[in-house]
Amino acid sequence: MSRKKRQKKDKRVKYTSVNQVPGQVTYVGSKESVAPSVEIINYNKEKVTREDSNDVQNAFNFNGTDDITWININGLNHTKEIEKLGKHYKLHQLIIEDIVNTQQRPKIDDYEGYIFVVLKMLYHDAQNEFINEHLSIVIGEDYVLTFQEADGDVFNGLRERIENANGRIRNSGTDYLLYALIDAVVDNYFIIIDTMSDKIEALEDSLFLENPEEDLSHDIQDLKREVLKIRKAIYPLREVINRLEKSEHQLIDEKTHSYLRDLQDHITQISENIEVYREMIWGLMDMYMTTISNKMNEVMKVLTIMASIFIPLTFMAGIYGMNFEYIPELQFKYGYFYLWGAMIVVFFLMIWYFKRKKWL
Amino acid sequence: MSRKKRQKKDKRVKYTSVNQVPGQVTYVGSKESVAPSVEIINYNKEKVTREDSNDVQNAFNFNGTDDITWININGLNHTKEIEKLGKHYKLHQLIIEDIVNTQQRPKIDDYEGYIFVVLKMLYHDAQNEFINEHLSIVIGEDYVLTFQEADGDVFNGLRERIENANGRIRNSGTDYLLYALIDAVVDNYFIIIDTMSDKIEALEDSLFLENPEEDLSHDIQDLKREVLKIRKAIYPLREVINRLEKSEHQLIDEKTHSYLRDLQDHITQISENIEVYREMIWGLMDMYMTTISNKMNEVMKVLTIMASIFIPLTFMAGIYGMNFEYIPELQFKYGYFYLWGAMIVVFFLMIWYFKRKKWL
Amino acid sequence: MSRKKRQKKDKRVKYTSVNQVPGQVTYVGSKESVAPSVEIINYNKEKVTREDSNDVQNAFNFNGTDDITWININGLNHTKEIEKLGKHYKLHQLIIEDIVNTQQRPKIDDYEGYIFVVLKMLYHDAQNEFINEHLSIVIGEDYVLTFQEADGDVFNGLRERIENANGRIRNSGTDYLLYALIDAVVDNYFIIIDTMSDKIEALEDSLFLENPEEDLSHDIQDLKREVLKIRKAIYPLREVINRLEKSEHQLIDEKTHSYLRDLQDHITQISENIEVYREMIWGLMDMYMTTISNKMNEVMKVLTIMASIFIPLTFMAGIYGMNFEYIPELQFKYGYFYLWGAMIVVFFLMIWYFKRKKWL
Amino acid sequence: MSRKKRQKKDKRVKYTSVNQVPGQVTYVGSKESVAPSVEIINYNKEKVTREDSNDVQNAFNFNGTDDITWININGLNHTKEIEKLGKHYKLHQLIIEDIVNTQQRPKIDDYEGYIFVVLKMLYHDAQNEFINEHLSIVIGEDYVLTFQEADGDVFNGLRERIENANGRIRNSGTDYLLYALIDAVVDNYFIIIDTMSDKIEALEDSLFLENPEEDLSHDIQDLKREVLKIRKAIYPLREVINRLEKSEHQLIDEKTHSYLRDLQDHITQISENIEVYREMIWGLMDMYMTTISNKMNEVMKVLTIMASIFIPLTFMAGIYGMNFEYIPELQFKYGYFYLWGAMIVVFFLMIWYFKRKKWL
Amino acid sequence: MSRKKRQKKDKRVKYTSVNQVPGQVTYVGSKESVAPSVEIINYNKEKVTREDSNDVQNAFNFNGTDDITWININGLNHTKEIEKLGKHYKLHQLIIEDIVNTQQRPKIDDYEGYIFVVLKMLYHDAQNEFINEHLSIVIGEDYVLTFQEADGDVFNGLRERIENANGRIRNSGTDYLLYALIDAVVDNYFIIIDTMSDKIEALEDSLFLENPEEDLSHDIQDLKREVLKIRKAIYPLREVINRLEKSEHQLIDEKTHSYLRDLQDHITQISENIEVYREMIWGLMDMYMTTISNKMNEVMKVLTIMASIFIPLTFMAGIYGMNFEYIPELQFKYGYFYLWGAMIVVFFLMIWYFKRKKWL
After folding, report:
1. CA dihedral sign of residues D150, D154, D155, D156
2. From the list D280, D300, D328, which residue is nearest B300 (CB)?
3. Residues C321, B314: Cα–Cα separation, whole Å
4. How confident is the model at residue A248 (pLDDT cuts 50, 70, 90)?
5. Using the beta-carbon criterion (under 8 Å), do E262 and D21 form an inter-chain contact?
6. Rounded Cα gap, residues C90 and E323, in angstroms
7. Which pLDDT band, with edges at 50, 70 and 90, does C271 fall under?
8. How far apart are CA C66 and CA C72, in angstroms?
9. Nearest CB neighbour to C194, from listed E14, E232, E332
10. Sign of dihedral through CA atoms E336, E337, E340, E342?
11. Which residue on chain A is closest to C297 by alpha carbon?
């Protein structure tokens, strides 16, 4: 990956919300959608209805029934609509702020009557580009709200399972839907770390090439940065799931705990893999150093061999290029050929010497 | 940044208070203001008054009323005035000592009737210079005292919100003002670590230049030092906010806790970022090493190519510069041109060899 | 080990179960056996019967008696059969999923009436190839189920002891068989880390060779990867055994605890050894770096000695190869021999100089 | 600092007390004073008396009164006298052993009726030499015993404050004197780590010199050793002060706790600084490596430039030194000048090439 | 230390007990003594008897009296005799296994009526060879059993103190003897780490030599291995002593606790020293790297100086060796001497240049 390309893709989001009133709702991310896209899925054991809309107002019609209503908002830049939703469900002002603050790290907050979870959705989109999307989930007694930064997510399998009548999801409460949402996100982490593993292997293979086209240290540093970023996105989720699993909130059903324990296993496994990859990447820099040194060794050997062979020979030729009045060898009939003989002997002595040193 | 400049800016404050009586009030910082600047903001739900003065005595007139009085002192070298204030509010002698001791690390002390918080205000002033200012806050039932090393702070947004009638701050107690003060400080940390991130990227880019003008290892070491200093200033604050959040002191209202939890999230996020930057900076030194090694490799290749091509050719020329009486080739009519032919063949053989080795 | 060979052997298993319904049973490993091989050992104090079958149905005949029934399944790709078994013993759906998910890390789950343990069986098979096999154990009141990825395991010694009438195993419950199974697995870890130790020593010896045939940094990196993988497989088992030892599950007899404590000692010892080997391997890269540098030093010395000796001599010869009309030395009768004398003096001066510098 | 000097100053104390009876009192340090110097300070609110003596017996006269008696012994080699003192105050035999064992690490032991504290007094004496002195403190109801290895300590300020009638120290119990003693020791640690900081800066500056006179890696290693030693002396004191602060021993007054908390802050700050310095020193070695590599790069460039310019030119001269019968150029009238022209062109081409590569 | 020698001394013990019945007694060490040497010391306040024997049976005569009986077995290969002893004192089968398993890490096990401690005895024997001996101690109400791998131990001082009537040991119970035994072992650790410190210093001195005879990286790696091994032997003992100190086993007398606390101090101090040495050894590799690089720098300088001086001079000589028909300088009367002048100027210019660069 060239440096230029990386810098374009990697446009950092600055913390522009500094010096604002606490609790003020300002979107700081870079993804903007024209209209908020609101997706409302209402289901119970018997039936499912799904409605797409541009106005959160439509979602409120479903509320108050015995069904579970999943309202999914795409586009965090429409802070007004999100505040309207927050007011309807009586969410704390700080929660609204966290929903639109894409810098917020993964966390869980228990409130009277609802649970608030923030996490990071990492996935490769249709164009195979790496997406790090801020995702907030609020679950209440009979509603689940999800807030995403932009269109596109990892919940398509989940939507199918809801529509599919005979799944466990249709027979469970909002806590199971929360579990299913987090599970879908965590499942995608596995793909992300698989990609990481592929990149490490590709770099290791590059280190074998005789003459890598560019300085690989920047690629290794980029990989370090990437693994550190992924770790930052994923690690706090361990604590989140841990607290969910231990939670005695009235919304979390007893039966859901074994599913959460399973999730905990997965996130621990991912964390362990990330640590392993991190150590591998750190090792790559050492490998690169030795590769460079090995190459320099080879360059030096070529120079040393060439110089060591021809410098003495040139000296010998120089001797008989001198203009002394009396150089007896010059008068020998075959002096020239004797010298060639001596030179060939010297030449093979040097070759033998370098062979013995295993430089040839 | 040149070395000279760094050393001037970086004038270290020595621990000159050594061997003094414990509890003795001595200012050890380097920033001196001529007169202590006292700023008194008195507010309640209905009205705000603000008065700037040079005498702390003026502040006491406001005290004793039902309003909240925020007294802000700029200039810690006026220890007499600070002691006068301390006596008025019956602060412990050790607190007065900590207020003027700019070496004091961030901490929180609960006392009967008041809470004492020390933290570090990091910001870039109007001249864009990095400022590390010692800040102490004392809150009581109806007063908030803040002590700053020098003029200039990060509280302008906060002052506006106090003057603005409809904010939450006017309807809350001193604990909310404490939160708002710390929040303003923490918000500025985000800017500081953003600057850090920019510096790291600038250094990474410098490492790409063919021939960086100076030894970058000192810049990297400076950056290490800087991140270590920032970490030292920020890390203890985590513990401070953590203890505030868990505190059951009568001054901390129940409703303030959720704001403090939010603050805790922010400071954790900052700490995580600092750790990431720290790892990136450590990686920079490795990158620099490989950059140097890569350059040396290139230098060596040029030398090896030049020497390997011309040393054998010079030897061939040397052969026919010899003065032997009988060198048959010298009598050949086109001997000179044959030799040129041989030399050109050798030349291209070497070129081909180096091409195959990918050195050209 | 050549790079090619490593890559073939090391075919990574991708996380293909992503985006599936939680609790869905899909085998993700790479080892496939044609028919599930079911081995049923039924024993009590008096007698042992053993039956090999291809149908788990046969195992159920043994159930319900007073004996202990050990059912061992080889081949996790036959998910249907495993589900049948799970249904018979009323195992939780998540357990069935974990049994066939070879990516599952070692863990223990307590359930009402049974205990579920996952661990990794590491051993060298008959062809001396390293095998990392996913092993799940379920123990109930009178049955022990073990699920292995493929044929071949480390339990042959255990089978003999069961057949041998007078062992403790025949007089104990399923908890002791669980201990004995884990103990057999852990005992094999000792062999694995012994092999690791041998590889480290072999690499250290390779570093002594004058001219190692290939770039050793990849072998060292491979070894790092290997020790990290083994650590990932073994470390979680510490927690598993720890929880078993502290468990108050009704299935774990009081007397078994001292055996579990012993097991705990063993796994701790293995972990400590792995840490030591890890540090040794990290040190290997440093050793390799110094080895390369030492070699380059030697190459440079040869070049420097050759060049330093012959360049001045060539210059001296060059002087008297000049065609000035008047060079007095050229007319000396023995000028040529005088020059030889001077050259020999220079030669020995250089030799002496390099001897004093200890380069020769 | 030269290597020789370091080794003289750094004479290690061997553990010569090995294989002795536990509880046997043997001094293992290297500092010997001819006679034990006993300093007895007796004070209460009204008056102070001070007496210097060579016999501990004199100290006992003061005992039993209502005053506080501070007995300070210099010279741990006089084990007999120390045992006499121990018997008088009924100290445990192990305490006596620890008082004279200069290898004992900082610790605190609570006993019925007295508290025993061991710490390390680090300071620069009048000759500016670094002193690491073993200091033991025992406090009882009305006495404080301090045992120092040699003359000279950091308590002069404290002595003055005792003599000065109006200090807090005269109005407090032995616990405050204990605090004041530890505080004086900790205050000096700040000076020690300031010196450390100066040394690091000096080394960083040395790394800038074109040609440092000696191998700096030993100075860096010495600094590492020093910071590790200081850390070893200081770190355990954190635990000591922590336990003092939490202690509910009847000798520790309620009011003293806030002073101890202050002390805790100081020692934490020192520990944090030591960690920062440690990281800086580790970074120094990397800087040194890059400095060496940069220098080698420069050396190589000079060689490459010289060789690359003159080797082709020498070859060109060699061509026309050949003795072929027919070399057309030799007959050209201005052939010699044409060649010079060609040589100058080649010369400037090389210069241009190296300029473009930024090597010149 | 040469590589060959190390490998001979370092013959690793393989884990040959794998796949055995748990609780089966198999000696896996390498030290074999022909007959078990049994040493029986029986003592009370009044008298001591000592008997050496080859049959453990003799030891049982002493048992059952009011005295304390210390039975010391040398030679773990005589598993039969050890089992006999175990049966007599009713020791658990797993203890017997641990006594002969020299791979067992230090641990403590409390049983009803007796305490079992495993530790490692590290010392230099009469031939100054490093011995790592497996030592097990069992104490009961009136007996102490010690099991050593071979003859020779660190308890001679202890035996003398037992024979010496007036020591504390004769008046205390088996718990004090246990303390005294561990204390003797720990005291020897101090000697071991002193030796380690000497080796580090010797290596540091070797790094100063101009031309160390062999590649030191292996010696450094050996030292790393050694410190890791010692750490592995010593660290678990901290936990053992810690649990002993906190133990409320009826065999541990109240008064013994202060001695155990003292022991705890010692082992902590040793652990801290090991950590310091470990960091120093890791630093050694860096030092070695810089030493190599510095040497290469010097080699390169010699080459560069020689080449830079003589290559231009050779070129100048080459110019006037050309055979052009018209080279005006050749006809100058003193052309030869003018050229020498120019050469001398060039020579000193180069010398001056290198002096200015501080390379000379």
Report:
1. positive
2. D300
3. 15
4. confident
5. no
6. 105
7. very high
8. 19
9. E14
10. negative
11. A297
Residue type, B42: N
Is-contact A252 A244, C-beta < 8 A? yes
Segment C137-148 mean pLDDT: 93
Answer whether D14-291 and D298-356 agree in fold. Answer: no
Residues of D in contact with E207 (CB under 8 A): 217-218
Cα distance between residue E162 and residue E168, in whole Å: 9
pLDDT, residue D23, reads 56
Give the closest of C232, C302, C307 to A272, CB-based. C232
E208 interaction partners in chain D (CB closer than 8 Å): 3, 215, 218
Chain D hits for E284, Cβ within 8 Å: 221
Q: Residue holding tokens 């040397």?
A: B318
pLDDT tens-digit readout, D19-72: 555 656 667 666 665 566 889 998 888 888 888 888 777 777 765 567 899 999
Terminal alpha carbon distance of chain B = 36
Q: Which of D4, D9, D21 has the most E C-beta neighbours within 10 Å, making it the best mutation to test the interface with E?
A: D21
Contact flag E18-C283 (C-beta cutoff 8 Å): no
Rounded to the nearest 10 degrees, the angle between the axes of helix B174-206 and helix B156-163 is 150
Residue range B276-305: mean pLDDT, rounded: 90
Q: Quick one: pLDDT band at residue B17, thresholds 50, 70, 90? A: very low
Q: What is the residue type of E9? A: K
Rounded CA gap, E113 and E140, in Å? 6
Cα B34 to its chain centre, rounded Å, is: 28
ipTM: 0.76
Query: What is the rounded distance in angstroms from the CA atom of residue D341 to the CA atom of residue C298?
Result: 41
Residues E321, C318 contacting (CB under 8 angstroms): yes
Rounded CA separation D224/D228 (Å): 6
What the block records as the tokens of C34 is 């044609």
**Which has the higher per-residue pLDDT, B46 or E301?**
E301
Domain assignments of chain B as residue spans, ordered by start: 14-291, 298-356
A156, A304, A312 ranked by CB distance to C302: nearest: A304
Q: Under CATH, domain C14-291 is a member of which superfamily?
A: CorA soluble domain-like (3.30.460.20)
Backbone φ, ψ for residue A47 (5° rounding): -140, 160
The contacts found for D275-279 with CB under 8 angstroms, 24 or more apart, are D276/B228, D276/B229, D276/B232, D277/D193, D277/D196, D277/D197, D277/D200, D277/D227, D278/D224, D278/D227, D278/D228, D278/D231, D279/B224, D279/B228
Pair type for strands D130-139 and D114-124: antiparallel
> How does DSSP assign B18-45, residue by residue?
TTPPTT------S---SS-EEEEEEE-S
pTM across the whole model? 0.82
Q: Distance between CA atoms of B79 and B97, rounded to whole angstroms?
A: 9
Residues β-bridged to residue D148: D74, D135
d(CA B216, CA E257): 57
Average pLDDT, chain A: 85
Looking at CA atoms only, how far is residue D248 from chain E in angstroms?
19
Which superfamily does CATH assign the domain made up of C298-356 to?
Magnesium transport protein CorA, transmembrane region (1.20.58.340)
DSSP E strands in chain D: the ranges are 37-43, 48-53, 68-74, 107-111, 114-124, 130-139, 143-148
- In D, which residues are within 8 Å of E273 by CB distance? 232
CB within 8 Å: B210 and D358: yes
Chain E environment of D289 (Cβ under 8 Å): 286, 289-290, 293
Q: How far apart, in whole angstroms, are the C-alpha atoms of residue C341 and residue B71? A: 95
The 3 state secondary structure assigned to D160-203 is HHHHCCCCHHHHCCHHHHHHHHHHHHHHHHHHHHHHHHHHHHHH
3-class secondary structure, B327: coil
CB contact (8 A) between residue A211 and residue B301 = no
